[in-house]
Amino acid sequence: MRQWQINSNDGIDALELVETGSREPGPGEVRVKVHASSINFRDLSTIRDPASRNLPLPRVPNSDAAGEVTAVGEGVDGVAVGDRVASCFFADWEDGPCTPAAMASARGGAVDGVLAEEVILNARGVVPVPEHLDFVEAATLPCAALTAWNALAGVARVKAGDTVLLLGTGGVSIFALQFASIMGARAVVTSSSDDKLARVREMGAWKTVNYRVHPDWEKEVLDLTDGAGVDAVVEVGGAGTLERSIAATRVAGTIALIGVLTGGQIDPVNIMRKSIRLQGVYVGPRNLFLAMNRAIAQHRLRPVVHEVFSFDAARDAYHAMAAAGHFGKLVVRVAP
Ligand SMILES: NC(=O)c1ccc[n+]([C@@H]2O[C@H](COP(=O)([O-])OP(=O)(O)OC[C@H]3O[C@@H](n4cnc5c(N)ncnc54)[C@H](OP(=O)(O)O)[C@@H]3O)[C@@H](O)[C@H]2O)c1
Q1: Confidence band of 97 (pLDDT split at 50, 70, 90)
Q2: What is the Å distance from ligand 1's center to 172 Cα?
Q3: Which residues line ligand 1 (CB under 6 A)?
Q4: If you measure from the C-alpha of residue 170 to the centroid of ligand 1, how many angstroms do you get, rounded to a whole number?
Q5: Residue 204 has pLDDT above 90, yes or no
Q6: Nearest CA residue ID for atom 23, ligand 1
């Protein structure tokens, strides 16, 4: 069996495809034949600079996989050979608030990830895959989808009639658009590309703003909401966008702080003046993943997959993410 490994601080092209041994699952573990693994911006950041994260090398990248259980270890309950499962981002976060122990179980970071033909995972660190999804689609769920779901359903508690602001058209934001739609919320979406904005309108976005054409995009968002601002923001931009997101949020609204796509500094005073609730989000626990999957199954929601790469060409998937031309998710098909 082969796995991709980060073996140096030299970036995408230094990733190595390595032949390693297969093993039987131990107590509480399952063996999964990986069919697909999706890429998140965080995987790209990890590959570019494992040293700053103090990662022991080699490290297998990626948190997100979907595949088929091929063996179960002693004492495993509720997972059987032949089950279609997805990995959880955190091997050990069942429910409740995030903990240091959960953070220490982040796959493709603190512990080995899943970009491999076969992985051994703890049985409590996998979930069943919604039946209507194929493996490529299911592989998009563990990080981007759950983060978007946690932001909207968990943190912002979005309800029908709310207005949400979504930044850009990457993996997290496109899931947030789909979830906002099934929650009955209206979405304002920003992007650098008019073509991508046309696509989000086709998907049901209420209003769109090109943040390149309108560098002061928060003013457009305020205009669209009659000066009031949005109820909630899925903030994937980070320091470079946060101050504008604060300006675009209504008094006593919520910002789910997720991303680090941009750098900069912020003046926090309007968080206080506007009584805004600013809440950090770190993906989410297994129970929330199960709840999200129920909603995905009920609405027969299909993830938006921009491009699928072969296992041997996995490096190209990270290059594609770095180029930022994608709309939705980039996925590596591991099993042909
Ligand atoms: N905290 C967590 O648990 C968590 C989980 C998942 C992701 N994240 C973070 O969230 C961010 C997004 O992740 P992702 O996987 O969705 O990334 P992604 O798929 O690579 O999304 C990139 C997109 O973000 C948009 N973007 C970039 N700069 C922007 C700006 N200044 N304003 C508005 N949009 C901008 C662009 O959209 P357009 O091309 O449309 O302009 C770009 O295509 C990353 O920082 C990632 O590390 C955090």
Answers
A1: very high
A2: 7
A3: 40-42, 143-144, 147, 167-172, 190-193, 196, 211, 236-237, 240-241, 258-262, 281-283, 321, 324
A4: 5
A5: yes
A6: 170
Overall pTM surpassing 0.90 (yes/no): yes
- Averaged pLDDT, 198-225: 98
Q: What is the dihedral of CA 130, 133, 138, 143, to 10 degrees?
A: -70
Helix (H) or strand (E) holding 181: helix 171-183
In angstroms, rounded to a whole number, what is the distance separating the alpha carbons of residues 142 and 120? 17
> How far apart, in whole angstroms, are the C-alpha atoms of residue 115 and residue 109?
12
pLDDT, tens digit (0-9, with 9 covering 90-100), for 144-201: 999 999 999 999 999 999 999 999 999 999 999 999 999 999 999 999 999 999 999 9
C-alpha to C-alpha distance for 115 and 46, rounded to whole angstroms: 13
Expressed in angstroms and rounded, the spacing between residue 168 Cα and the centre of ligand 1 is 7
- pLDDT score, position 336: 82
What is the mean predicted confidence (pLDDT) over 72-98?
98
In the chain, the domains with their CATH numbers are: 2-140+303-333 (3.90.180.10), 145-280 (3.40.50.720)
CA 196 to chain centre: 19
Between the two ends of the chain, the Cα-to-Cα distance in Å is: 14
